[in-house]
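#struct-help
A.M.: can someone run this one for me? Single chain, 444 residues.
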Amino acid sequence: MYMFRRLTVRMNSPYFTSAALDSSATEIMGESAINKEGIRRLRSRMAQGLRSEDDPPKVKAEAQQKSISDDPMHAHIPTDSVKSSSYNTTTKVKEEPDQAFLSPRKRGRSHLKVEYETEGVGLKREPCDWRTQLSFIREMRSKRDAPVDQMGAEKCYDTQALPEVRRYQVLISLMLSSQTKDQVTAGAMQRLREHELSVDGILKMDDETLGKLIYPVGFWRTKVKYIKQATALIQQEFGGDIPNSVEGLIRLPGVGPKMAHLAMDIAWNQVSGIGVDTHVHRISNRLGWTKKETKTPEETRRALEEWLPRDLWSEINWLLVGFGQQVCLPVGPLCSMCLNQHTCPSAHQPSPRKKIKSSPAKPNNKLASPTALVKEEPEDTSPNRVSSQKRNNAGQQLNQQDVSTSREETPSLARNRRKGRAGAPPSGQTHRPAPSHRTQTTAD
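D.P.: on it. Structure tokens below:
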């Protein structure tokens, strides 16, 4: 009994535990000396397994050292014994892992973030064959002989004027070109330049004189008002020079997105967007350069800017406008002359025409004349037969001519006259011969 108690006390003491660990460490060192190569292979396999769990090796080594140094049972163990017992220590760390060292696989798969999902921008959808179509349009526009090449906004300003005056003239030419042919716009700009086309000159000019100079551009009365208001705003808020941003240009009366982007490109030499007019809008839809058919030029501009490279934004307006003026006409496009006739989805299709609104027909209460009715009916061409309708009409004409004499004629004579037979007039009366178309020979 005494020996049993002493043994129990000794087993519960820390010295006994340390001695036991010392003995176990000695045994492990002996085994490692015998099978050192096997332990080395085992450690390499464990290292590969830990790397597969996506944990950095440095973090694992630091966690291993920390767990060993913090354990009071291993505080006085020699270094050699610690190295030999690394297998057991590593196993303990794997059995009770900390949340900070959990691998992504153990925490569960998270949602993979895609760049265009976070930014809200999808993949670019480029129309098929658009590069080939664009190269053909460049080839057809190589001569640069369209009206926009000679009388466009880039050709209407005075190259010898001051920079702010040139920019103002570019804006005025863009405002006049809306719903107007380039020839008419160029003529109006020439007349304005002869009367000092500048901010101060327009402010001094009265509305009547300005209207006479820009006539006959489309909606010239409205444009007179817009030019006056925009010029006054430029003088008051922008110091006599046009705004250098799209937002500032759109603030001006009579200036829309198309004019603003073209003014930024021509006047300020900055590409801010695609200038889409009626030609660019029509041709883009015909070539299928939009995801779906667009209704307005602004929708076409947004659709083109989604996929068209930015370095082509300035060129595309000039190309398509001239192409629309010469080949891809609004009505009756010249598809047989176009190089894109084999790739264009709208080639050789009838162009839509405007329906002419006809006023409702007024009711006609007048009866048609018998002669008109006879002309509308087909004539009987048989030589021995006369249509019944002609006989009735001829009889009505004879009755009207011989009203005075028909009362005294015998019934047989009147019957013969209706049948077209020549009868002898009664005694004492003269009878006028029948018309030539009633004379015919009949077999008695």
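A.M.: thanks! The chain has a mean pLDDT of 73.
D.P.: also worth noting: The chain has 24 helices and no strands.
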